Every structure is written in C-alpha cells, then in structure tokens.
Amino acid sequence: MASPAIAERRAFSHGRLQEFAAQLGQAEGSYGSQCCVYATGSYGRGEASRHSDLDVFIVGVTKPRSDAPEAGGESPERALNPLDETCLKSDLIRATRALELPEFSGNGEYLQHYTDHELAKAIGAPNDDHANTFTARLLMLLESRPIFGQAVYEQAIATIIDAYFLDYDDHADSFEPVFLVNDILRLWRTFCVNYEHRTRAAAKLPPGMEETPEKKAKRKLKHYKLTHSRMLTCYSAIASLLETFSRQRRVSKDDIRQLVSERPLDRLAAIGRQRNTVDDQVNAVVEHYAGFLQATDASEENLVAQFQDREFARRRAYDARTFGQLVFNLVRSIDSESRLFQTLVV
Question: How confident is the model at residue 68 (pLDDT cuts 50, 70, 90)?
C-alpha cells in the first residue's frame, strides 16, 4: 500500500533518529533511567525529509519528595533535577547542531520537561492546554518515537492509558474509550482554532502593519500542512479505535498500546487488513497523503514562494478540502451506526 515516496521517507526518518540517538549516547547513560526523550512531528510519523525540523519532548519519572510525603494533591518530586534537565537540554541542542538539523522552534520554547504523573494528572484540567501537557500527552500517544529512555517511555504511556481507562475494570467487556476519543477530537479542534486565531489576528492589524504577501503565504502553507499531517495523526487514531470497537464491541488497554506503537499510516494499513470492505477508502487517503508529501518536499523558503502564487495556493486549499472528505469517507465507512461513532458528532 505504501508508495515508494512514503517508504523513502520512512527510511530517512529512521536513519536520522538513529544518528540523533547516537549523538546522545552519553546523555542516555546519565539520564535514561530518569526520563525519556521522544520525537513527534514528521520524525515521529516516519515521514521526515531533509527539510524537516525535529520536535522532541522530555518526560521523566517521579520519586517520593525528600521534604514530605505527597499529600493534599502535592506532586511528587521529579527524578531528573533542574540542573540535570539543563544539561540534557544542552545535549539535545548540541546534537541538532552536530547533525545540522534546524534549531528547535521558538528558540527552544517547547523543549519542556514533564513527568508521567503531570501528564496524567492534567487530563481535563483547566491549564492542560496552556501548560502544553495536553499536546505533549496526546502527541506521545498518537505520533511519537522514543529516542532514548525506552523503559521510562513505556511507563509514561502505561500511566497515561490508565488515566483514560479509570472505569475500565467495571466495563471491560464493553468499554468505549470515549474519554480518549474526546481528547483526540479536542486536539484536532485546538489545532484548527489556534490557526483561526492567528488568521483573525492578522486580519485585524492596524493600517500600515498589514500582513505581507510572505507572511500570508506562510499562513496558507501552515494551513495546508495542518489539514494533512495533523488530520492524519488524529483521525488515523479515531478510525483505528472505531474499527476496533466495531469489530470487538470493546477497546482494551492492549488495543491502545498497539495503536501507540503504530505510526499513523500503519494504522490505516491495519484497518485495511482487518476490514477489506474499506480498502478503497484507505487507499484513497494514503495515495492523497503521498501526494501531499511530494508537494511539500522542498525548503520552507521555496514553499512560501510557491504559496505566494494565488492559483497555486487555491489548488492546495482544494487539495486540503479533498483530503478532509477522503478521511471522512473512511471513518463513516468503518461504522456509522455504533455509539462510538455517535461520540464523534454528539
């Protein structure tokens, strides 16, 4: 099912992550039992190119507080102390520079350290999105690959799954992962709302500060990427959960672990194997996505220049709408009658 372009991207992503991990050998020896580092974005999805930047998160474990036991909701102490965290971030920056990867976005603003306890406890909390625990947690489940600290990575995933499955033991034979599905939908809609916020902010600039053609093109390029890569991340997971529930009439913790272990395109392939009646819909999504990868296989500078052409930008916007329709067709074809499908709408 995978095209040569997708297979090439997969091999490139794997090779570069191995090179990055090799650069961090000493850091893993020092901190690998206290935390994990995992990649998301194009490297996590296995579709990076030579133009891709590397998005990483740090998630650690906790230990009993040295001053007092946990009480009154107080969080346990981080195993990775602040000085070691600083050293690890320096190691990550040096590794990207040694491999001539782009600098971390926002001058490292998103290079944050969380614990598995913090990611699980934040689910549904008022500051979940603001603290970026929401993004770190969902991307860990939906499109991540560990760079080092495999045991900590697996522990964090188990902790997060347990938090989403609090009622599982009482409904193991018919469990619907509604809590998780709602959070995945929230992630997708947050991406969309954040994009709209930036668009509206640009439209309200005072006279003399109007958006330049280059900035407008960058925004259109971001929209094009968002409506492909982020949609694939979120809805490959939703489609997988829907297919599993439709077939088994339940979703288990092991099913979620399997979902986490798969890249988004792998989930689509698995759906096709389990349900050959949706082969056409799966293939349509994958073929269109392969075209998106080819269309974005260029530097940002070149892509921004292309998106300044109105007709080119119009065609890409049409492509994005088409991809959304193809994803919708697939989800609807899997099972539009189950209660889990109803959760997607109501």
Answer: low
| DSSP-assigned beta bridge partners for residue 57 | 38
Distance CA 198, CA 87 (A): 34
- Gap between the Cα atoms of 111 and 55, Å rounded: 8
Q: What is the CA radius of gyration of the chain?
A: 21
- Tell me how far apart the terminal alpha carbons of the chain are, to the nearest angstrom: 33
Identity of the amino acid at 71? A
Identify the structural domains of the chain with CATH numbers, from first to last.
1-164 (3.30.460), 170-346 (no CATH)
**C-alpha triplet 29, 35, 36: angle, nearest 5°:** 90
Mean of per-residue pLDDT scores for the chain: 93
Q: How many residues does the chain have?
A: 346
At residue 71, does pLDDT exceed 50?
Answer: no
Measured CA to CA, the distance from residue 225 to residue 303 in angstroms comes to 11
Torsion angles phi and psi, residue 115, rounded to 5: -115, 160
At 79, phi and psi to the nearest 5? Answer: -70, -35
Query: Would you say 120 and 163 are in contact if contact means Cβ atoms under 8 Å apart?
Result: yes
Percent of the chain with pLDDT over 70: 95
Report yes or no: 50 and 12 within 8 Å, Cβ to Cβ: yes
Amino acid at 164: Y
DSSP state, 346? -
Report d(CA 69, CA 152) in Å as an integer.
22
Q: Three-class SS of residue 153?
A: helix
Q: Among candidates 140, 159, 175, which has minimal Cα distance to 39?
A: 140
Q: Residue 156 pLDDT > 80, yes or no?
A: yes
Distances (CA, A) of 231 to 63, 67, 151, 258: 37, 45, 29, 20
